[in-house]
Amino acid sequence: MALAALDHVNIRTARLGELTSFYGRVLGLRPGKRPPFDSGGAWLYCGSHAALHLVEVADSPEVPAPRIEHFAFRAENLAEFLARLDEFDVAYRTAVVPEFGIRQVHLRDPDGNHVEIAFAAEEDAELGDPPGG
Hints:
By secondary structure, this protein is an alpha+beta fold. The chain has 2 helices and 8 strands; from the N terminus they run E-H-E-E-E-E-H-E-E-E. The chain has helices at 16-27, 78-87, and strands at residues 2-13, 30-32, 41-46, 49-56, 68-76, 93-96, 103-108, 114-119. The protein has an 8-stranded mixed beta sheet with strand order 2-3-4-1-5-8-7-6.
């Protein structure tokens, strides 16, 4: 398993329009195609890559600052990576992104930070979560 690149940053916000406008104006990111998730949001693209994922949430004390929900890496060899997590007894959960087919592995580091490792839709591996994962 080899990490290839940082894939994206995910930010929860109660000001979706404001953030979309800010990142467009200030950084030149542009809104683009986003899977049909149940929550509102926007994917902002840097070139052809969706580098910033904004997720709309209600403004409340339960949404702490900073509002970065996770960071993600793109990687290759899903089966090898899952075996490595099992070898080190790391709890994780898996998901497949609707319409895009991207295979996701979600885990937490020892400090509790949410980390996503994203694999191409063509990657083939058993995606069941491990016991206790």
